[in-house]
């Protein structure tokens, strides 16, 4: 292009794991193509790694163990792919305060200190981009922040953690237990040696906080997110879902909630297992894929689908952000600020309207359903459907409720579990989506 | 927000049909929320319509029949929702040359004069946004232009015209003829009185040109796009597809093509009916919905799904662009320029590799298949599958080919149709996607 300037945009890379090494490879290998898209050369000036001697594939002169020094050096953009809170937080704040733009995929840091980082970026006029933090390669944050900026998003619901989706998909197709399936996932490399961040829902909760913040113009942190993982999901839960022609997914759900026409709005942000109909488009999302539904007042229903993790897909998101930040450097502008003007309150989980599926083994005698139904009535929980069937000397009873306060549903289940006629609470899970 | 400035961003609206009236309603009704997102008030200064007296629902003082005067007036952003080439092209060029940003959904104009408009925007530093031009509410162009700016897109394939998708979906489920189904679509308001722009593929071809331009950094105009509509699709074609567990969709296909390892790249941009497997995710996109698959080297396979038309959904895209343009005004920057640096040649359809499905009624006697197979061999077309079955005194023969030059496939079909043993060519259609 005739508009190409010669002064390069100088880039520092912090971290060189699966994603970082892919980013480095593209920056070094596709320099000409990136330069054409930015309108100026992109120069990778340094790569901070813990052990520079462990990266023989990279140019020696670029490697350094001094991340702090690299951040302080003469660079325009800092790409951070190390992860974790400290010391990364300090480095990125330093970079932003000095006017250097930051591209990061650090969901934990953003979900905790997003406000602080965003304020630092705002003050110095630097860009803070983090498309890679949620749903890997899927362009999701930019559409939420920019494309839908003139609409009112009412709901974001999606599969944002590949490890748990792999485990749940496998449990659904094999009937194996959670423990067996986790072992298999670990062996295949889909789960880490310490799988807690994934299976306990921390990773998804960080992503939910980021999604809700952008969707509702409201700062939501990870600690605001109600979180349940998948470690309690049993083979019985999966069978219970299958009997209803449903499947179990770990969903991140962010929604606007308003009680009554006059009530002020709040947002519910949560991560928990959900039974969804097999006909639901999220039900067909298998293995390590991610998919996110977005509902907006004017746009209606949108879906975004793609690879949620992996070196190359995540590097695609990082490089997209880098090109945006670099273009802004060249053009002298900056990307849109985060707009947290709505500042809606986050609704406690107990006050959030949800629907429950409850599967019980009960005594096979008359009056049992009446007794159980009475407990629902006392807690003001309306029953949508009941299915009963004999099974040896006990009977199996399945109840699906209408929407009710989550705390009322929980209290109902607690009370029911104490009834003499209830032999066992086989499965309790929230449900989303209409049966077709 | 404390950052809010008081000087408003002044906006002119050209056209007030289905989409325009929804945009006007939101601009007038949600002013406070839009102002919070932009960081400055948005002021709608005028609405140009053909007959101002026909819009009693709008403030009288805003309405004018003088679009040209409105464009020349003191406004920062011009939203154009009139459509067509002239006189709109002149107005938008005037606006851009005077540094006014333009938001438009005019796919025909962009597919024809995108380069001229883009150059005018570039010279004056104004923004030119047109998310509404392709796939209505689905955030698609911004992801292509920005999120994937650091990746290499290899393929964009999608359902981008709701009218034809409605007709083909209905033909597939009812077995009715094209003519009957078009009548029904017109009665239901899914097809216009003159349906040519949709059913002859012009609308989809304009969108394909826009998609290919952004995806491949290469200026592609509507006249570069190979185009076949759906008017020739018969109930027999639908049945032929169903027998192969496939369905017929009108697809816009944009792909990079390189012949041999040393060959330079070109792009193929085309719109035509395609048989795709029923298991393909695009096969399940029914009614007036749109869905677009994007394949990129690093990101892998992505899908975007949502409403492709309608007042409110399209207004969502327009207002997203307006907020972006207005934010740039407030921040003093501008959005990323279009980058057409690759300038790849557009491959003629005849030279494009495609696969054909051919369904024939042939004489039921020995040697017929050998005779037909010989024609394929002469044209260097490799056969992937053959299915033959008796049907009274003739036999039905179905051939699916491997990839071959489209011109070779066409020549093969022509020659086969002249064979004495061929009673009728029942259906010829291109196929995409592997059978599962």
Automatic annotation (TrEMBL), chains A, B:
Q: Which reactions is this enzyme annotated as catalysing?
A: L-homoserine + NADP(+) = L-aspartate 4-semialdehyde + NADPH + H(+); L-homoserine + NAD(+) = L-aspartate 4-semialdehyde + NADH + H(+)
PANTHER family per the record? HOMOSERINE DEHYDROGENASE (PTHR43331:SF1)
User: What's the protein name?
Assistant: Homoserine dehydrogenase
Organism of derivation: Saccharomonospora xinjiangensis XJ-54
Q: Gene3D superfamilies per the record?
A: 3.30.70.260, Dihydrodipicolinate Reductase, domain 2, NAD(P)-binding Rossmann-like Domain
Active site (catalytic residues) = 207
The residues listed in the UniProt record as binding NADP(+), with positions renumbered to this chain, are: 14-21
Please list the residue ranges annotated as the ACT domain.
357-430
EC number, as in UniProt:
1.1.1.3
* Residues that bind L-homoserine: 192
